Amino acid sequence: MIVEHAMRLVRGYGLQAVTMRRLADELGTAPMSLYRHIPDRQALMVAMLDQVAREIRLPPPAGDPRAEITAVLTAIHDALHRDSWAISLIVTDKLAGPAIMPALERLFAALRRAGLTLRDSRVAYALLWHYTVGELLDAHMDIPDDTFARQMIRDADPDAYPTLAAVAQAAPPGPPGDWFAENLQRLLDGLLPPIVRP
Hints:
- The chain has eleven helices and no strands.
- The termini are far apart.
- The longest helix is centred in the middle third of the chain and has 22 residues, at about 120-140.
- The protein is mainly α.
- It has helices at about 1-15, 20-25, 30-35, 40-55, 65-80, 85-90, 100-115, 120-140, 150-155, 160-170, 180-190.
- The chain has one domain: Tetracycline Repressor, domain 2.
């Protein structure tokens, strides 16, 4: 019940709204009574991340390792896009809970089936994870799309910076998030042995 209330708060008002005092008020109890069930705020955050992980919509396993890697990473991406508040806990606070383990097992098993060594599987996972989280941070964290850097490139003087100006003019419409699937395939092209490339 505590985690369910915390999830309603975070989804309605953001991470800053999730305090033990506010949770206690919502539940009609004293903050100290919550500590009998949740040892501290960090434990609450981990329980909330576990709830996000349990809501990952993993499709049935795919026999093709590339299809499996794509499906698992896309499902994780979609879940974190829905609950973007979780990204800062994962990236900044380095938190995670055990409910993510089935998705990670499928991902690593697919990397191994694709022919990667144990070490290369770990390196590939790091690259894929950093891309997924980085894309979420860049495209889905309620940060205005018209950032200073993007505006600066878009307004680049074509005489001084001809390549930047040309790229800005030719860029596909929409925020970078629209390119997640396409860029994931580019990464897999470089990571996976040719035998599992389409």
